[in-house]
Amino acid sequence: MRRRDFPLFLAAAGLSASAAVRAQEWPARPLKLIVPYSPGGPTDAVARILAVRMSSTLGQPVTVDNRAGAGGVIGVDAVAKAAPDGYTFALVAPGPLAGMPNLMKTPYAPSDLQYMTLAARIPSVIVVGRASGIASLQQLIDRAKQAPDKLNYSSAGAGTSPHIGFELFKRETGARIVHVAYKGAAPAITAVLSGEVQATMVDLLPVLPHVASGGLVVLAVAGPSRAPQLPDVPTTAELGFPGVLMETTYGLVAPRDLPPAVQKRLRDSAVAAIEAPETQAQFLKQGAIAATSTGAQYQRLMQAESDKWRGVIASARISLD
């Protein structure tokens, strides 16, 4: 090394050492886990399980911050605009990453986020209220064809997974059922329970208590296999509709440009939390299957979902108007 370059080398080494020290000290304060939906829904339930486990592994509290609105866009935008220091991240369903960007000009691009890892997979299920008198998927289809546009289905909002999923069901079966949007999964399910609407397609997680109490009937699982919690309920493929496939994948995203060392520590903590046997048991009890991935794998999955959703949105002429 030339003598004149030695001060520059020392300065660079000092900066690297300083960054390493900061990474070792991270996290030095509580973290915020944003859920871009209302409390009580499936994303919220999964996030709260993770927050407890990650608080233990990181040595700092991880608090859940619900930022509902615009199909998840408001919460995800808050993460995209947060400081890239690792203290703010989010658990999201595909809606604000794969659905809403195909329906509106979102204030962020999906590429503005740092994809961390998958967290869980939850199969979507087609359910009706017990009072509807509908006992099978074919009966729902037949009734919808006999009285077009007389039945209603609920969703967690325009452009959300339940909305796109049910439109996919309509496209594949020819059933004509009218969409009614609610502000979140919890009120969408309540609408089916009360008889305001007859059906919905929603994650298995929030449905299980109402199935146990007798208020809801699950007609089919729109996933690749039967749900272990409901082994007697057939899949849509088994019932003759293999194209009706809708599985909600939950994953963790953070602001882009996280320092690599902080990104690694945050992701390692999340993966350890997800893969803990206690977490997997809690997820399974509530209808979710724990899943992890690399950040690149998660991002590719969301791109594939975006391509799929774009086709359903176009064929169903879905808009936010």
Q: What does this 3D model show about the protein?
A:
The protein is of the alpha/beta class. It has two domains: 11-122 and 248-316, 3-Layer(aba) Sandwich (D-Maltodextrin-Binding Protein, domain 2); 123-221, D-Maltodextrin-Binding Protein, domain 2 (3-Layer(aba) Sandwich), CATH 3.40.190. The protein is 42% helix and 19% strand. The chain has helices at residues 6-25, 42-58, 73-80, 95-99, 137-146, 161-173, 185-194, 208-213, 260-275, 277-285, 295-316, and strands at 31-35, 62-66, 88-92, 113-129, 152-155, 178-181, 199-203, 216-221, 247-255, 289-290. Strands 1, 2, 3, 4, 5, 6, 7, 8, 9 and 10 form a ten-stranded mixed beta sheet that branches. Strand 1, helix 2 and strand 2 (62-66) form a beta-alpha-beta unit. The chain starts with 5 loop residues before the first helix and ends in a 5-residue tail after the last helix.
Task: Describe the structure in brief.
This protein has 321 residues and is an alpha/beta fold. It has eleven helices and ten strands.
Lay out the secondary structure:
Layout: H1 6-25, E1 31-35, H2 42-58, E2 62-66, H3 73-80, E3 88-92, H4 95-99, E4 113-129, H5 137-146, E5 152-155, H6 161-173, E6 178-181, H7 185-194, E7 199-203, H8 208-213, E8 216-221, E9 247-255, H9 260-275, H10 277-285, E10 289-290, H11 295-316
Helix pairs in contact: 2-9, 6-11
Features:
321 residues, alpha/beta, D-Maltodextrin-Binding Protein, domain 2, 10-stranded mixed sheet, 11 helices, 10 strands, 42% helix, globular
